[in-house]
Amino acid sequence: PLPDPVGDFAPPVDEHPSKIAATLASLRHSADSRITHPRRFRVQQLRALEKMLDEHLDDFLSALNEDLGKGATEAKFSEVDVVRAEIDFALRHLAEWMDHTNVKVPLALQPAMAKVEPRPLGVVLIIGPWNYPLQLMLAPLVAAIAAGNAAVLKPSEIAPATSGALAKFLPLYLDNRVYAVIEGGVDTATELLAARWDHIFLTGGEKVAKVVAAAAAKHLTPTTLELGGKSPAVVDNQLPAVAKRLAYAKFMNAGQTCVAPDYVLSIGDSAPLIERLSQTIHSFYGKDPLTHPDFGRIASHRHFQRLLDMFEQGEVVHGGQYDETTLRIAPTIMRNVDLDGTLMQEEIFGPILPVIEVATFEEALEFIAARPAPLAAYLMSESPRLQSIFSDRVRAGAIVHNAPLAQMIIPSLPFGGVGPSGMGSYHGKHGFDRLSQIRSELSKTTVVDTLSAIYPPYSWAKRKI
Ligand code: NAD
């Protein structure tokens, strides 16, 4: 018989448990029957997810445009294609990931068989942010499905069109017994967090991460926390590609990317770099970026206002235009910034790039070391010596030389932070392992008792001593 499905949740106060509790109870009931375990089921669900993205591509692209003004090209490659790459990679490697590994048994324990095998965890709660509201819900879901888990998705209420599209289309493709989308804001998240989960996967900010960690502690639930921070870009060379790569990574999604270069540390005179950045912005987004279809908007009025306040904290040397009616802020470069203001104390998460001059590479390293460890640290330099010192000395979720953001789309690279920028990583096998229990199994026969030598009384040991 299947376990009591409601046993995991607080007893309902009346005869009618809330809709959330009922959904969770039924989901756990199905998950406990292990329908998510067979490889065939996982493959079928991953294919179904891919089919959903194919058949509703236009719906998702227009939802992303509605939520964040994302142009179709950018939305496709930075959201949909990243998820598709994760699905394809998982489909290609699933058999190998799921396979057990036999390990050597010490002579004293032989004959015996010992193996390590990844096992599903159970039911995973995935809470997502608004900035890549499709990718950051579905990439963790790919890992959850691949690892044989059931999952509940709680998309961000600040990207309501994408949240709505997920709630509408996902149930048409995935097995509703084990996958559900529950829409809502803080109240919904709070109710979800009160339940017992086998893993909670949050992508969001530090404040919410603390709420999630505290809720998880009540049930000793493991968590993955994908957070943010101020990812620095140290610029050592002035090749034309440097400004292009920086501007591309910074201004994609109007700077609302967790691994966007938050600020630049320019070694020596920053004027040539600023000049190149200005030209690049112009070549990317034209004379009037506020109306350019490839340049997105700010997610909410609150974030819009928060970013405008940052204009006061230094000298605007490029951009600075904004339009409150469309929530657009032009790509902006600032210098001579106040290191104690919100611009340099908080994650910027918008299209403002402060450029700070430092005299030496050493000074750049010290500047970074004096601040919390970010999600990524970028070095724009062709010097193997500087690259090697940078990787050795800088503490960050990822170290990238000359290709900011590109680390995100390589499924074999773990994606995650360290310290305040997060806990645990995913993508590819890292996500599969993160949402699996890596289980030990040992098997030995009793037909011949080869362990008899170790039983008490320990006269054999005393003889040796
Ligand atoms: P957020 O932390 O405000 O919200 C994330 C999610 O938490 C949303 O679904 C929201 O509804 C929920 N939430 C809000 N308040 C809650 C509460 N009190 N209890 C429980 N849940 C609650 O983050 P955001 O503003 O949506 O996203 C921006 C942050 O996410 C930035 O810090 C950014 O760096 C980070 N981020 C990280 C990554 C990554 O992969 N590491 C990616 C994108 C964004």
Automatic annotation (TrEMBL):
The keyword Oxidoreductase applies. It comes from Glutamicibacter protophormiae. Residues 39-439 form the Aldehyde dehydrogenase domain. It comes from the Bacteria. This is Aldehyde dehydrogenase. The keyword Oxidoreductase applies. InterPro entries: Ald_DH/histidinol_DH, Ald_DH_C, Ald_DH_CS_CYS, Ald_DH_CS_GLU, Ald_DH_N, Aldehyde_DH_dom, Aldehyde_DH_NAD(P). Keywords: Oxidoreductase. GO terms for molecular function: aldehyde dehydrogenase (NAD+) activity. The active site is at E226.
